[in-house]
Amino acid sequence: TPTQVCSELATQNICAWDGHFYAIRAIETLGLLERGGVTRMGISVYNTEAEIDFTLAAVSKISKS
């Protein structure tokens, strides 16, 4: 679930959020509201390439488990 993904990322000091993010109708239409919505992360100009690589590796590991 999005909550589980966020919890796992948090153990690696990666900030992510879960929920519907005020797009309730879109999340409902996709059938995701009852599953907890989606996971959201923000990557910006202040993130390093190493941080992005670390995050992608963490998300990849979660998706395989």
Report on the architecture of this protein.
It is built from three helices and two strands; from the N terminus they run αβαβα. It is mostly helical. The protein has a two-stranded antiparallel ribbon. The mean pLDDT is 95.
Attribute tags:
2 strands; 65 residues; two-stranded antiparallel sheet; mainly alpha
Number of strands: 2
**Estimated radius of gyration:** 13 Å
Average pLDDT figure: 95
Q: Tell me what portion of residues adopts beta-strand conformation.
A: 5-15%
Biggest sheet overview: 2 strands, antiparallel
What are the segments in which pLDDT stays under 50 over at least 5 consecutive residues? none
Helix content: 40-55%
The end-to-end distance, rounded to whole angstroms, is 12 Å
Shape: globular
Class inferred from helices and paired strands: mainly alpha
- Strand order, main sheet: write it out: 1-2
Give helix and strand order, one letter per element, not per position: HEHEH
Instruction: Determine the number of helices (DSSP H or I, runs of at least 4 residues).
Output: 3
Brief rundown of the structure:
This protein is mostly helical and 65 residues long. The protein has helices at residues 2-10, 24-29, 49-64; strands at 17-19, 38-40. The chain has a two-stranded antiparallel sheet.
Would you spell out the secondary-structure blueprint of this structure?
Blueprint: H1 2-10, E1 17-19, H2 24-29, E2 38-40, H3 49-64
Antiparallel strand pairs: 1-2
